[in-house]
Design goal:
The complex is a heterodimer of chains A (416) and B (318). Chain A is mainly alpha-helical. Chain A has helices at 2-18, 24-50, 65-78, 81-88, 99-120, 143-171, 181-203, 216-242, 249-280, 286-292, 302-320, 327-345, 369-398, 406-415. The radius of gyration of chain A is 22 Å and the shape is globular. Chain B has 318 residues and is an alpha+beta fold. Classes of the chains: A mainly alpha (416), B alpha+beta (318).
Amino acid sequence: MTTAIRNYCVFLGRCGRIAFVGDWRYYSWMGLLTVFCLLGLNAYCRQFAHGLVVTGMSDQVSWGVYIANFTFLVGVAAAAVMMVIPVYIYDNEELHDLVIFGELLAVAAIFMCLAFVTVDLGRPDRFWHLIPGIGQLNFPASMLSWDVIVLNGYLLLNVHICGYLLYSRYQGKKPAKWFYIPFVFIAIIWAVSIHTVTAFLYVGLGGRPFWNQAIIGPRFLASAFTAGPALIILALQVIRHVTKYHITDKALLTLRSIVQVAMIINVFLLLCEVFTEFYAGGLHITSSKYLYLGLHGYHKLVPWIWTAITFNLTAMVLLVLPVSRSLKWLNLTCVLCITGIWIEKGMGLVIPGFIPTPLGQIVEYFPTLNETLVCFGIWAFGLLCYTIFLRMAVPILQGDLSKANEREALAGTVAH
Amino acid sequence: MSDQRISGESNPPPEPEGMSRRSFLRNSAVFASGLAAVAAGLSPLLDIENFPSLQEFMQKYYKEMTPEEMKKVLERIEREVERQYGIRPHVRDLKPLDGVEYVYCLNLTRCIGCRKCVHACVAENNQSRNPEIQYIRVLQMQNGSFDMEKAVHDYNPEKVPEKGHFYMPVQCQQCKNPPCVKVCPVHATWQEPDGITVIDYNWCIGCRYCEAACPYWARRFNFTQPEIPADRLNPEMDYLSNRPRSKGVMEKCHFCLQRTRAGRYPACLEVCPTGTRKFGNVLDPNSEVSYILKNKRVFIQLKEELGTSPRFFYYFDV
């Protein structure tokens, strides 16, 4: 038992050490991310001291870009399932060795989600009121309490699966199926649940007709399964370029088909929504009018949503055409997908729900510099985590970091 | 360093003696500048005033406190208010009265839109003057339409009422089926037996989900530390109602429970010059509100179709 713990500590120690080692590109990338993390930390401390008044939010628009990013990133986390399903249900060979990169991305995305929710709280010092047992978690009535449970559960599942598989590979052992396969299948359902629950946060509010529509849930999933795998494609391209890890073109093209189908469904659902809103008309469509066309001279969101629609449509056309089989075009398409859906799920979904207010007042919203810096900080933190995860995972998967060379490695350290 | 060699990346050849000292100096320099950067990042925390005391941080949930614990908390709040404003307040924890369910009735034929209720409410309930927080929003509506999107919020003529308009004050509707209570992740807001939805300001985490859920835009958030001039402070306070709030929590109309649970009328009713506002116990068949609900032919619950079932009724004299 003690040797097992000792071995595990050695493993963790070696993983921790390798995170600080790399070539000049690695150092500059990590340095840049650290700078942004610190800028974000500084901005958050300012917010902590003075209150949410340093953001662009108001009583009229009481959620802003924090919750927008949170919503988008829950989708990214859920999208790992789009690699897990082909591998574990359809036995896809190409993606088999890559699925862990998707799961690690999910872990980093959940970190960012939790950070975005925390910075949105007025009293983060009271977060313990959410902990069952010592606090008063309003389960099952509040959808936010569901979100707390499913997000943390999803984090644990993915940490367990990735951690176990990597440690098995490190030890050169074959992983015991019973110790991770059941969790993989639970995680598949769980991934769908995290994004559905997040959609229900909005859908469940009867006083906000813009959100109170059944189609929001399916749209969330479709957009998540577009943006998530697109992000994974870009991550794999980077891994391919900066490490010797072998990633086939075919694997990337499999992911391309997933993004392709998801984007077509996403655009179709958008069409369904827009038709229902505008053809029937009525009073409940004012938020949509504000979003797409502007209302009574207020139109801050109009350029955003049309940018998103242009990006999404262009991406869809590119995905359908054979041109996106060329990896350069595929990269561009992925960037378009990610940006388009970030706008659509963020500025395009969260903000217009508040405009006009339930009493008909129009107050517009735009993030402040401080708020933006906090967002950049959290994104940098997430990317920092993901880079570290990859820095550890790639050598383990390649066999460069393994128990077999533990002794040489430790001896090497002593020699220095 | 060894891991780097294993992972097959370029590695400068290890230098013999002398290197350790130089690398020690370099590492210390990197470490020191890192620490300085983190410290600079954290520096805005020095601006924090009124850091919550340990007792406040550890304070239990309202419904779980024993009467003795509550007494201590009320005394602590009195001390804190005195320290901040130089006035010793009287903070109580009035319980709902048996056999009472409060209902508000508002006569739209009479309201002239003078906003006296808004300001009486601010004064009574110790609302922040900077930034301004108000529980009542008076809408200037166009005659012939109940469409709130045509309402004017910031009307400011020399004299009210203006021709062609009627006025509709909106505040917390004290719903029987309140969406805000349902969505709160920590039970920080709930409905009392007398029908008033209250907030434990010491339990709210400030997520603003209730503010998104409210169909009447009745909830307000303290985006920063509220400011109240000391000479304007109302020292008659209650735990669940008008004691000063802190930054980062929600607040809203609570039917002036510090007054109504002691047998008085809400401040907005008392100040109204036109008799627009009627308040009372709907369980008492002889109350004025019971009479109105029985005998007035047109009354309206705002957004009735949402099923929130407000305890706030608008009516016309027909």
